[in-house]
Queue: 4 jobs
Job 1
Amino acid sequence: MKKIPTAPNLLTPDDLEHYERRGYLHLEGLVDLITLSELQEAAQEFVELSRGMEGSGKLLDLEPDHTSDEPRIRRLNSPVDNHERFRNFALEGLAAQLACAVLKGPVRYHHSKLNFKWSDGGEEVKWHQDIQFWPHTDFSPLTIGVYLEDVDESMGPMGVLPGSHTGPLYDQYLDSGEWGGALNSADVANIDLDDMVWLTGPAGSVTVHNCCMIHGSVPNDSSKPRPLLLQTYSRADSYPIAHIGANGVTGQLSGAVIGGKSAQCVVVEGREVIGAPDWSQGGAPTIFGSQQEPV
């Protein structure tokens, strides 16, 4: 369990109502300058590391034309597991505080990533919903994003479709049956893209979006990268469903409970299941040992 300092004034009642109704928050310049500088420095360490790489690996996903002289990074995988500053921010710092505030109680950390969206054509992220990538036992999961640099409309900011978190959950497979990770063209044709809200803002601006929200971004046509640090949480009584999507490959710290305790309780088909303790780290006892009365 990770304890975090309280932040009673982080969100207003209007902010919470906006998230419930619209499915997202856009908090400009929320991250303080010292924390922002620390995150920027940590991100730059991985840019320098990439110069010695010729292709993608488990840590960094690189664009095909990446070179040591001109690095082009798509994504840093699991920054929380790979740098102390990202870890502190997500499990104890502002992101952890904000997750607890939006979800109104203890939260369960799921995973993190840093999408760089490099300059001069950094790739688009097609319209999609997140929950199909890593289904949970409810729809509480949300993702908190932090822009590490100033972002304007030319840089491929994230776009969200307000209210879509309460709408249909789309099939994100291709016609071939392969996983596509995006809405198909027929479904996109039925979406009014004029209703998209583009979340721009100065460095340190924060986005929050629900796991069912339709969102994406266009290519970055500017001369500057658009690094967006992302971390995902759910309520503490929400659990990722194993053997579907990315669940199980989300990092060593995935599942950490922040801001309280897990009740080890889940509701299935209206019936409450009070589960056993989490034995994933220390191993499970036998039923014989558990049933012995204390002497």
Job 2
Amino acid sequence: MHGYPPPAQIIGLLANALFLDVLDQDAEMMQRINRLAEQLPPEKRGSVRPIRMLMVRPSVDLGKLSGEYESSLPASCRFVARGLGTRETESPDWLSVLLFENDYIDRLLEIGYQDARRQHDEIETFLHGDAPS
């Protein structure tokens, strides 16, 4: 039988609930409003119009990635992080929100660049899809 989850895991779940889950809920709400707006005839929409949306997410679990950079934290922060059980959880998600170390930020930028390159056509279509050529 397993004991209680480490505080780092609980903090990570709370951070996800506060930040990421809210974004997902906003996207779902926007999709619902878009569907409703599309069902209305144009003359009855008033200023309501469907809004195009593009969800772009990192290809890497940022929580797991942040765990790789825990050792670069200042000693006092590393002490607190490890005391909260960062090494006892698979994905220390809360570190990804707080970690501002240069190497980690550089890695995030590289991941973002590569993800954008892979999704180039989709992003370009989103940005210029309705524009005349």
Job 3
Amino acid sequence: MADTMQVEWIPASQGENVTVNMPTLSDLLADIKRHFEEREGFCLATLNLDHVVKLRSDQAFRKAYAAHSHITADGNPIVWLSKLAGKPVSLVSGADLIAPLAQLAGSMKVPVALLGSDEETLRTAARKLEAQHEGLTVAICIAPPFGFDPTSELAETYVSQLQEADVGLCLVALGAPKQELFASHAMRTVNRIGFVSIGAGIDFIAGTQTRAPVFVRLIAAEWLWRLATNPKRFAGRYAACFLVLPSLFVSALKARRANNHGKAES
């Protein structure tokens, strides 16, 4: 589709725009299946409003995002704004990706790594994933220390461990921007592993964090659940997200008008 259909998530003055290039889960899984078959690495990020705020203020984060091969829409505002712009996409969050990716990896005998959280949580999550998905092997679990630098020598050590374990998929749960920074950094060294940033996904699987109930997610109120359960952590984050919405709304309208104009001329 034409560039005019894209929401300008990042102002043009700050660099190349981010594009949601995997509009549906089926599109994504089909492409990842091909990557697994060809032992070809990839980086997957899930765009949400918090990422948009960070992308607009953090040059290193923008550079890391630019290195990602797959981007999905994680958050209803991204879905709604994309639809307004004339480029409809489906909601595909990091937490919701874990089960289908684990199922695919298990069926294709692709070893998996878990990176993030703490050792006990990783062990619990690994056991549950292997029990839930036939054929799945979690080959290695890595729990970085507090204050971990995703581009440090220690990060290089972890990349070497992933290579030695011969994994094909690494689920990275460090939170943004660390997980995207680590994934893009690792891809410069190894090109046979798929890195997928999943935020709190490992904690949800292990049960150390509770995700919003399904009915809350269905009414697009997961953000309210998070705010109510952890206001100190999320109040400032969501305030910044609300502040960026007006400019995104204007950008989506401009993209829609440009697209409609292009259709009228063709």
Job 4
Amino acid sequence: MSSPGLQKILLVEDEESLAIGLTYNLEEEGYRVVRAEDGVKACESFQKEQFDLIILDIMLPHMDGFEVAEKIREISPRVPILMLTARTQIDDKIKGLRTGVDDYLTKPFHITELLLRIKGMLKRSDWYKPIDDSKGTYRFGSRTFNFSTLTCTVDNLTKPITPLEARLLQYFFSNPGRIISRGELLTKVWETTSDIQTRTIDIFISRLRKYLEKDPSNPVFLKNIRGAGYLFDPGRESIRESHPTQS
């Protein structure tokens, strides 16, 4: 992993005083910071440059943070996005996570917590790198998951998946028919022992169901087990794994 001095952060914040303070603190930690004061400029900057992490406000001029996150995810499913906002409603958090945001911090916040979250997201940068080709391609019924290209193909329609979604899928595919607790997912997939809200994990599970289920609102394959965790039950659908042919 590169040193913090080589890591570049796109800060999308329209409040001048807050942006100046954040830039100062981030640069003191050794990060390079590029600031965009509205959603349109954020998208333009992202198209021109490569960033290691995005800090994104929701309430922005011209284009809100949800729209920015969606556009960024269309370009790259890998770059980590931290949503930083004064909007504390659970619906906003859910909407952000569903657009592909990886973490969510509300204002006012403590700068130490923000820096620790950023450090943690960058430390787990293997979420956002292409997964090793040796992981192969998984076929589940009519669905094909390519973990080297981070894509899911259903009925000839190919969609990107994020690295965290890919790791969750891999973990469930490797443990069919076994109840997996939230604590186990935190340790094995999130690679953390810190507390993540149950609702956050549930949202990521709902994202997986869009790839796995014919009717995500009535899951058949990926089920919640009350008080215990989650169960991936492939039923009659086989999980077939193939690996790239070595020349």
